[in-house]
Amino acid sequence: MKEMISIALPKGRLGEKAYKILADAGVECPAINEESRKLIFENAEKGVRYFWVKPSDVVIYVERGAADIGIAGKDIILEYSPDIYELADLGIGKCRMAVAAKKDFCDKRDTTLRVATKFPNIAKDYYNKQSREIDIIKLNGSIELAPILEMSDVIVDIVETGKTLLENDLEPKQDIVDISARLIANKVSYKFKNKEIRTICEGIEKIIK
Question: Is the whole model's pTM more than 0.90, yes or no?
């Protein structure tokens, strides 16, 4: 009987792409594609158990050991700083974290910069390195509204094509970090299920090369 590996996948397109890579790497689970209200899907023959979770929760499931491995965006890893291992860059879900503002915005460093973001820790870390005084405004959606309504000077958010910014008369000002999906592992699982996890990693590496 194979050691069962639990894998947390982020709900949505990113998770579907990640699952395809994992399936191609040899740890497929046909039940996951069936119409069902089930939360957990297993393939005992392959020794894998999958479950879908909110993207920002993947790191928590992995850090706490409910999942042995998972797929999480680099943005989530940087924001939450979980105590996990980052094993591989899957090369999917590529985008970037950036500072954006109105096109005519000019940063006056003698004032406190108002920053609206879903990622307060990333924003704080970025501006701390510049010794810039900031006021963080934590929002959960429609970040672009903040500078339009003059609630913030800038936003720190994920940028893919930049189209949404352009349509709202905003533009990227500085790139902070490139983002993509990463394979992560629980530290205890990596020690005690190392052979199984390394086999999955090797399979993934062959797919993404």
Answer: yes
